[in-house]
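User: tokens in, sequence out, please.
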């Protein structure tokens, strides 16, 4: 018990260390950075809709906003993309409507009782005040917020012919839009956790054209910056936010700098049922090439690219989504992009006429209590920290071997020369040589294999074909070598997540085949094996905390990730579940 008391005191000391990120944020080349230190800050966000008919953040009839904010943090997200309809700030009768009256007008009586019980402080305030309260709650929990103007008229989004897709549509008056952006930017000027404004979600429809995009996006961006110069200005493209290719030859001219970010969306259904009807290797190769051509090129041009929506059916039964996700996670890891998952929502008050609509893409379940799919949260956790970026040169540039199906990386097993999958925070540093050997950096060891079905191992004779790894297939995610100059095999995993070699899967046009276990991505990294950019500095911990820990256990790393610190305490005391 004495040990437990000591460790709890240390945890309290650590938890009250000031966060290392200073707001506001700016940009430096392709990175979003801390404005004071110029150190990269990776946005790992989740979407929290507040743009449907009630114009009230979803889920607040189920739980308090503070408890939801706390759970967002506990799942590893540092940011929320909070959606809002334009009419919230341009239609006075709507913005002044109380939360209670908004639900009454829609005949939604049951949520009123839930809001009264879980969030009584907002049930009788105006919709805009309730929106501010959600932002404030997120701020209290150190969650950054991106305000996303999702549409004009409250409701579900988006349809090609819904009249709310492009400048000049019946519900999309560009002058009113600029007015609304200005009001929202002004309202949150000085609210430090509001770090960005996304000017409009998924531009689309028969009226979309490049000239009007430049005309109005420039006006909107300048208006927001004038009203709130601290926030990032986030711009979407055309065709449901899939196409920014026109920026390649015609840059946007703005009067300000270091605030511009572009956003794109990518779902499995963005390509119809291609993931089901086509060979996954070929589809992944084609789609990633399309994405790099239409938006991914921006990182090479020195712009941050934010994947502000992606997501899958978290029941795990949608083959199209499952195959897409394996490809998507590989690309996001490779480019080390900022992102926002769709969605936090477990259920909606009202969506497309359905009360209590169950959102299968939601990370929370229908009751907003439990995670719908906890393994998914674990799987994306490696992408919540940056692999590299300004101010993150903790080690020399190296490769990590990322496995999209599991969200894990290739590690050396402590028992010997074999390898297995494990947390990417503990990843080995690999060097991929011009001779195509995968060498353990700083050693004479390289990855080798002897025959199909056997484990990949570390060896010292690295000149033969059994240690020469080629990236093959259209997906560029198969790592293949030849055994005896004849048999081609690919890196794979077995049922224990040990690294083996086996016959290469799905290299032909078979649409029934799934190569997911054999997809690996070589990812550039400069992060050390202790968990990204959320560090607790030794000097920041109280002298008492340092002294009692050293006296009790004899060690304390100069820099240690907070999550791994907690995990170490659990392992030291055998207190699984205590923290």
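Assistant: Sequence out:
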């Amino acid at each position: 018990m004495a040990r437990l008391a000591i460790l709890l005191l240390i945890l309290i000391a650590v938890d009250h260390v000031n966060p290392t990120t200073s707001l506001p944020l700016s940009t430096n080349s392709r990175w979003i950075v801390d404005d004071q230190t110029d150190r990269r800050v990776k946005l790992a966000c989740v979407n929290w809709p507040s743009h449907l008919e009630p114009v009230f953040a979803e889920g607040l009839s189920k739980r308090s906003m503070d408890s939801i904010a706390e759970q967002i943090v506990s799942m590893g997200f540092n940011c929320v993309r909070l959606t809002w309809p334009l009419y919230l700030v341009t239609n006075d009768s709507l913005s002044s409507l109380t939360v209670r009256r908004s639900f009454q007008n829609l005949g939604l009586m049951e949520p009123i009782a839930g809001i009264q019980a879980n969030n009584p402080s907002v049930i009788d305030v105006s919709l805009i005040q309730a929106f501010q309260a959600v932002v404030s709650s997120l701020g209290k929990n150190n969650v950054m917020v991106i305000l996303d103007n999702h549409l004009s008229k409250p409701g579900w989004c988006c349809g090609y012919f819904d009249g709310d897709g492009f400048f000049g549509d019946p519900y999309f008056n560009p002058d009113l839009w600029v007015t609304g952006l200005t009001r929202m930017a002004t309202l949150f000027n000085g609210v430090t956790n509001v770090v960005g404004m996304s000017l409009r979600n998924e531009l689309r429809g028969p009226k979309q054209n490049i000239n009007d995009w430049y005309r109005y996006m420039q006006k909107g961006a300048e208006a927001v910056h004038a009203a709130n110069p601290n926030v990032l200005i986030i711009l979407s493209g055309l065709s449901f936010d899939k196409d920014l290719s026109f920026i390649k030859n015609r840059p946007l001219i703005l009067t300000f700098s270091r605030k511009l970010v572009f956003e794109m969306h990518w779902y499995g259904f963005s390509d119809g049922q291609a993931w089901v009807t086509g060979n996954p290797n070929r589809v992944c190769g084609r789609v990633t090439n399309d994405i790099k051509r239409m938006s991914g090129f921006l990182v090479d041009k020195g712009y941050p690219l934010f994947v502000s929506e992606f997501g899958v059916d978290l029941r795990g039964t949608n083959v199209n989504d499952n195959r897409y996700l394996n490809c998507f996670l590989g690309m996001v890891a490779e480019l080390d992009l900022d992102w926002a998952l769709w969605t936090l929502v477990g259920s909606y008050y009202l969506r497309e006429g359905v009360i209590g609509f169950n959102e299968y893409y939601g990370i929370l379940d229908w009751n907003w209590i439990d995670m719908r799919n906890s393994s998914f949260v674990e799987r994306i956790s490696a992408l919540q920290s940056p692999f590299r970026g300004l101010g993150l040169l903790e080690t020399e540039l190296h490769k990590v071997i990322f496995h999209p199906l599991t969200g894990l990386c290739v590690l050396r097993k402590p028992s010997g020369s074999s390898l297995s999958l494990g947390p990417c925070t503990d990843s080995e540093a690999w060097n991929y040589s011009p001779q195509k050997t995968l060498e353990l950096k700083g050693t004479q060891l390289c990855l080798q294999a002897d025959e199909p079905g056997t484990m990949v191992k570390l060896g010292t004779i690295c000149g033969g074909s059994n240690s020469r790894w080629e990236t093959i297939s259209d997906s560029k995610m198969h790592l293949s070598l030849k055994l005896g100059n004849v048999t081609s095999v690919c890196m794979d995993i077995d049922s224990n997540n040990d690294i083996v070699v086996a016959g290469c899967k799905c290299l032909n046009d078979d649409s029934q085949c799934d190569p997911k276990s054999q997809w690996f991505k070589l990812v550039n990294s400069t992060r050390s094996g202790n968990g990204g950019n959320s560090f607790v500095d030794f000097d920041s911990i109280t002298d008492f905390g340092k002294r009692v820990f050293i006296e009790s256990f004899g060690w304390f790393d100069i820099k240690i990730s907070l999550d791994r610190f907690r995990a170490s305490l659990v392992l030291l005391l055998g207190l699984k579940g205590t923290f």
